[in-house]
């Protein structure tokens, strides 16, 4: 296992329909010196429609956005999106994760917690943050606090001198951005603070956030939600004022909807070219007729604006017009590539638009050769036969926010147990005749 | 752990008429309980209540399920009062259920008589249950007719039995 960072546990509450805390374990309870997650590097989350699978992936995306983007909560579109995905009943929640970090000489287990709420002004705020370091390898070992924030203020970080320094610098900011994004902006940080162990732990948290890659299914991306809301809320009198701004935004959206148009920094172009060549080799496995994927690049200041062309023997076409399945595979390539190379990757609806056989082979590849961590949601039961040989690899989430991990049960296979309704809290008591009187209307 | 309930009904897999009335009853009167999974056992005829293949089918379901299983037989009373043969068969099924600790639900005279208030020709039964569901007639059923202890025309003890497993809405 090459990966130096590994997610051990994820606990979430208050996102979408997750009203009560749910916990997902990625590894066994005790972490000893021979930490070896080889049998634990893949996890599939199954559940009926609306059970909260996407909420789990969204919570990881939220965690990453809050840890890496200091302006994330300042953006109106993000705010509009967040107040919609916070659970409507609880109006508050949290994301907590336990992470294993191996920096070569030392091994650490960090626990990060971030709580949030939607307040009366209908905005999303961070209410608390806590980063802890575990003292020892057993589940009952205690943690020591690295830093803690509460109600927008720093409560603990390092010694008194360090705490006072950072408290002043982060004054009135910590309900709108995370502590880490606050301190990266500080121009001068005394060297003694930077060498402090607590400071180093904070950077390990940042590295964890960087090593996350999250893919949310298109339908749950809500990219144009903010735009639609704006259109709905325009008063007639405002049209002139806001009209131009909206037209610009819509134009931008249409441009980005092309999907394949990417800005690549000129210094990175060589790497990009190599990656697209590997993507071509990847797609060719599924579509042997593909002869090449060409990059069309246009100069754009320090960048190239790149779009992709699919080249076949007698014709070529813009990526936009490829089949949905191939486009999905092209998108997945980036995530699977990262997951195979040590990153922690979360993918929502990995199975959508992908042939069962191909899906199984992709999973099988990751099980045998992957070096990172892959967690995905799916409705397709076919990969279960591959996954069942891995530990903690199949989780079921029920409509009442309970999570169950598949454990061997006699001769019963996980796919049969699931289909037959034997998984706890997921009985699937649905009969074809239930649709009578609903679909096609009633006779009345 | 979930609980499994096997609903043993007189009809066959194709017609599945009585099973649909039973499921409609569960959905109308009881809260959705995610801890309970229910599934039909189609006896094909009440005379097959203790047929080897049916006993095996029930036993396989019980063995396969990792939790606790309960079995309920749903049997039409038919002309119990006037036919000796019917009475003997009905009493044997009841005794069989008592012996195996299965629950026993009766419909007087039959399931259509309870849910439609009249008996229905055999050839009409499939059409009628479809009509029942389409028109959502379950909402118009008089609850007291589904909660009797003794045989009474157009009535059943179904709610008395199902109350043991599900919480009322």
Fold and architecture overview:
The complex is a heterodimer of chains A (444) and B (169). Chain A contains 13 helices and 17 strands. Chain A starts with a strand and ends in a 25-residue tail after the last helix. Chain A is globular, with a radius of gyration of 24 Å. In chain A, a hairpin with a 2-residue loop joins strand 7 and strand 8 (153-157). With 444 residues, chain A is α+β, with helices and mostly antiparallel strands. Chain A has a seven-stranded antiparallel sheet with strand order 2-1-4-5-6-7-8. Chain A has a six-stranded mixed sheet with strand order 9-14-15-3-16-17, with helices on both faces. In chain A, strands 10, 11, 12 and 13 form a four-stranded antiparallel sheet that branches. In chain B, strands 2-1-3-4 form a four-stranded parallel sheet. With 169 residues, chain B is α/β, with parallel strands linked by helices. In chain B, helix 1 (17-29) runs parallel beside helix 5 (125-134). Chain B has helices spanning 17-29, 52-64, 84-100, 111-116, 125-134, 158-162; strands spanning 3-9, 36-42, 68-76, 103-107. Classes of the chains: A alpha+beta (444), B alpha/beta (169).
């Amino acid at each position: 296992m090459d990966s130096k960072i590994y997610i051990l546990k994820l606990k979430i509450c208050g996102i979408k329909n997750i009203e009560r805390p749910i916990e997902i374990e990625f590894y066994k309870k005790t972490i000893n010196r021979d930490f070896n997650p080889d049998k634990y590097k893949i996890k599939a989350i199954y559940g009926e429609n609306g059970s909260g699978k996407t909420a789990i992936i969204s919570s990881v995306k939220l965690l990453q956005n809050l840890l890496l983007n200091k302006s994330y909560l300042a953006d109106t579109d993000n705010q509009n999106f967040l107040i919609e995905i916070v659970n409507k009943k609880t109006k508050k929640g949290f994301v907590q994760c336990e992470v294993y970090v191996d920096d070569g000489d030392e091994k650490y287990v960090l626990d990060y917690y971030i709580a949030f709420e939607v307040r009366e002004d209908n905005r999303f705020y961070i209410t608390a943050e806590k980063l802890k370091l575990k003292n020892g390898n057993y589940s009952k070992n205690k943690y020591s606090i690295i830093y803690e924030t509460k109600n927008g203020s720093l409560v603990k970080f390092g010694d008194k001198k360090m705490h006072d320094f950072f408290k002043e610098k982060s004054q009135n900011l910590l309900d709108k951005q995370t502590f880490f994004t606050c301190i990266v902006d500080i121009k001068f940080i005394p060297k003694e603070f930077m060498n402090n162990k607590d400071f180093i732990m904070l950077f390990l948290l940042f590295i964890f956030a960087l090593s996350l890659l999250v893919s949310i299914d298109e339908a749950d991306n809500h990219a144009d939600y903010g735009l639609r809301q704006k259109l709905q809320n325009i008063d007639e009198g405002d049209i002139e004022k806001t009209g131009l701004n909206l037209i610009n935004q819509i134009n931008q959206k249409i441009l980005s909807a092309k999907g394949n148009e990417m800005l690549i920094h000129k210094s990175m172009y060589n790497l990009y070219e190599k990656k697209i060549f590997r993507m071509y080799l990847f797609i060719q496995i599924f579509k042997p007729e593909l002869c090449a994927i060409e990059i069309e690049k246009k100069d754009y200041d320090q960048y190239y604006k790149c779009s992709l062309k699919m080249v076949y023997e007698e014709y070529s076409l813009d990526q936009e017009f490829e089949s949905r399945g191939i486009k999905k595979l092209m998108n997945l390539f980036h995530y699977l590539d990262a997951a195979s190379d040590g990153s922690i990757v979360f993918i929502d609806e990995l199975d959508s638009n992908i042939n069962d056989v191909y899906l199984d082979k992709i999973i099988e590849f990751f099980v045998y050769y992957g070096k990172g961590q892959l967690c995905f949601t799916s409705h397709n039961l076919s990969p279960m036969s591959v996954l069942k040989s891995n530990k903690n690899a199949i989780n079921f989430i029920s409509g009442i926010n309970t999570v169950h991990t598949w454990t061997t049960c006699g001769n019963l296979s996980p796919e049969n147990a699931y289909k037959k309704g034997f998984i706890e809290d997921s009985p699937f008591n649905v009969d074809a005749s239930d649709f009578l009187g609903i679909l096609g209307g009633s006779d009345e | 752990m979930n609980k499994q309930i096997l609903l043993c009904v007189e009809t066959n897999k194709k017609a599945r008429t009585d099973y649909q009335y039973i499921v409609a009853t569960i959905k109308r009167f009881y809260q959705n309980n995610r801890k309970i999974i229910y599934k039909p056992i189609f006896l094909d005829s009440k005379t097959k209540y203790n047929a080897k293949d049916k006993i095996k089918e029930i036993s396989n379901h019980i063995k396969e399920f990792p939790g606790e299983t309960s079995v309920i037989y749903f049997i039409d009373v038919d002309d119990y009062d006037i036919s000796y043969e019917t009475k003997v068969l009905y009493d044997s099924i009841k005794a069989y259920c008592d012996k195996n600790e299965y629950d026993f639900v009766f419909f007087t005279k039959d399931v259509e008589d309870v849910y439609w208030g009249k008996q229905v020709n055999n050839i009409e039964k499939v059409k009628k249950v479809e009509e029942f569901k389409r028109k959502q007639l379950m909402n118009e059923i008089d609850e007291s007719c589904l909660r009797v202890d003794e045989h009474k025309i157009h009535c059943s003890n179904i709610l008395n039995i199902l109350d043991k497993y599900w919480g009322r809405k």
